[in-house]
């Protein structure tokens, strides 16, 4: 299964949805593999996520801003996130499916040097980095074509993406560090779980209030549209 993860909420996704839509369209033409799109703060069913999933973190990379990624190709309209924030959102949004993640692809445009720095920061911050390799790329990236092939523009020519792909291997944790990391991981997981639970609770009551207001408005409209019944004695 392929997961396209957008580290921006749907209302702050900029021009990323258009690229994701093209990716989905071409993927449906060329592959039977399941594909799912997850934005920051999305609610989704973890039961629908397959084991051994490949996750692509999709955002814009700017060559002159090597420590951040953006939601828009036009800098004047873009919202920028540093990689620490991207990692925090990734962990929060994908916490419930973390055991299903086999590989992570930091899918940003940029030079090998800049994207190495971005991927390395992600690896350092991600508490499950020992579980999965992280791939990063060099060049200008795009959605796969209608035949399912990935291409990158490098040195003014288009080349197969495999020629621009680089790997950060899974990190190894020494015996002394492992217990400390496990404790941090458990604390972080507990905090994120509590936050997600509280967020769902808030959403439930917000929706219930909206439903109640809609129902009141509906009855009010019905009352106003019903002619009075005359009664004579």
UniProtKB/TrEMBL annotation:
Name the domain of life this protein comes from.
Bacteria
What is one GO cellular-component annotation here? ribosome
Keywords of the record, alphabetical order, are: Ribonucleoprotein, Ribosomal protein
In its UniProt entry, what is this protein called? RNA binding protein (Contains ribosomal protein S1 domain)
- Native species of this protein? Legionella feeleii
């Amino acid at each position: 299964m392929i997961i396209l993860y957008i580290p921006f909420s749907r209302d702050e996704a900029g021009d990323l949805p258009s690229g994701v839509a093209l990716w989905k369209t071409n993927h449906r033409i060329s592959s039977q593999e399941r594909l799912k799109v997850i934005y920051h703060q999305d609610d989704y069913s973890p039961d629908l996520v397959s084991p051994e999933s490949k996750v692509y973190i999709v955002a814009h990379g700017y060559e002159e801003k090597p420590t951040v990624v953006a939601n828009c190709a036009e800098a004047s309209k873009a919202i920028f996130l540093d990689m620490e924030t991207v990692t925090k959102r990734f962990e929060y949004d994908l916490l419930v499916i973390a055991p299903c993640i086999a590989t992570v692809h930091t899918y940003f445009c940029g030079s090998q040097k800049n994207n190495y720095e971005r991927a390395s920061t992600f690896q350092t911050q991600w508490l499950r980095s020992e579980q999965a390799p992280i791939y990063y790329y060099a060049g200008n990236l795009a959605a796969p074509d209608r035949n399912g092939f990935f291409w990158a523009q490098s040195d003014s020519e288009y080349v197969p993406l495999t020629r621009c792909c680089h790997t950060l291997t899974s990190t190894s944790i020494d015996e002394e560090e492992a217990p400390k990391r496990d404790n941090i991981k458990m604390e972080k997981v507990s905090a994120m779980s509590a936050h997600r639970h509280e967020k769902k609770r808030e959403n439930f009551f917000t929706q219930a209030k909206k439903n109640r207001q809609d129902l009141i408005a509906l009855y009010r409209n019905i009352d106003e549209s019903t002619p009075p019944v005359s009664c004579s004695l």
